[in-house]
């Protein structure tokens, strides 16, 4: 029988996902009553844990999610370091992401019913409204932009819940690792036109991306496709796609209208808030599926993945969890954001011996510069710098080259960080009046 491995407060069970930057495990922990909890643990791959900037990006993700409290956003329990390992413990959603749902439907030659697609998009719009309108403790707008709305980041549970996850490249005023203008981060075919061209973003970029996901959920095909990444960038930039009713003649008119408005190239022509888009999606459900309930979504998923559900239960039951070491719970790096009532303070690796585990953990200072040297009252979305040149790695003060962590990202199947030269963009765009030259 496989034995669970302790990592901080958690006992790692089976690995459920693996990427170029981290691996995700189902894990078990215990509360003060001795009851067990299943959580998801994202452990940073060893070679990336050595890079301070990459770790800082994950700290940003955890801090951003740590401030968000919404039923449609996967909760973050803690970001911790245990020995040489960095990891994020988060809410475990017992179900599948939308990418897996799409893949299964393609295998079976089926399409996802329109009411389920509309429901998923509505719930994600609710999550985005919470993120876009989030304020810090002083009442200041955080201006969170997710920037990576894609099927793999929309989690659907077997009970019908929908949760948005992975704010790893989200932008907010509290982010300390900033993206350079002209550097594109995210999954290209789900980007907005302005994101594909490396321009400044606002919350309406996420709404365009949600429109692309809704299009794919309905048809099984992404609206923007091309044989090369550069061609794909320009197709996204022009927002040209095949009309939805050509691929799906039975699409309800109200739902098609939502997709068309979300995929407008001009930001002013799109929905102006996630609330507005969510209301339109809810209106579709009220009019076209008035008896629709969350349980309908759950039943659809349980039927679709009946064999996997049984297999996963047996696999989890096979793991042996031995008594943990309550002194090795790790160092919490974001306790200041999570607050004194944070969920992680109730977790212990030792069943029935909660008080042996320290609950007040120190917070490591991130980033590596003093808070009084950080810019205050500045909109981070307006920062413009040079286009990233992947062949020129920055160096530390000592002259030692920084580890090039981007190499791992370049080999991921659906995540790209692409350099766009202005000459390429101009060669395919319509003539425009030359802009005023910038001062050096």
Characterise this structure.
- Helices cover about 35% and strands about 15% of the residues.
- The protein is α+β, with helices and mostly antiparallel strands and about 450 residues long.
- The chain has three domains: about 5-95 and about 310-355, Phosphorylase Kinase, domain 1; about 95-180 and about 185-305, Transferase(Phosphotransferase) domain 1 (Transferase(Phosphotransferase), domain 1, Orthogonal Bundle); about 370-430, no CATH class.
- The strands form three sheets. Strands 1-2-3-4-6-5-11 form a seven-stranded antiparallel sheet.
- The termini are far apart.
Total of helices: 14
Order of helices and strands: EEEEHEEEHHEEEHHHHHHHHEHHEH
Spans of at least 5 consecutive residues whose pLDDT stays below 50 are: 172-186, 356-435
- Proportion of β residues? 5-15%
- Per CATH, the architecture of the largest domain is Orthogonal Bundle
- The side-by-side strand order for the widest beta sheet comes to 1-2-3-4-6-5-11
CATH class of the largest domain: Mainly Alpha
Overall, the morphology is globular
What's the count of strands?
12
What structural category arises from helix and sheet content? alpha+beta
Q: In the CATH scheme, what's the topology name of the largest domain?
A: Transferase(Phosphotransferase), domain 1
Distance between the termini: 65 Å
Helix content: 25-40%
Number of separate domains: 3
Compute the average pLDDT. 78
Please name the fourth-level CATH homologous superfamily of the largest domain.
Transferase(Phosphotransferase) domain 1
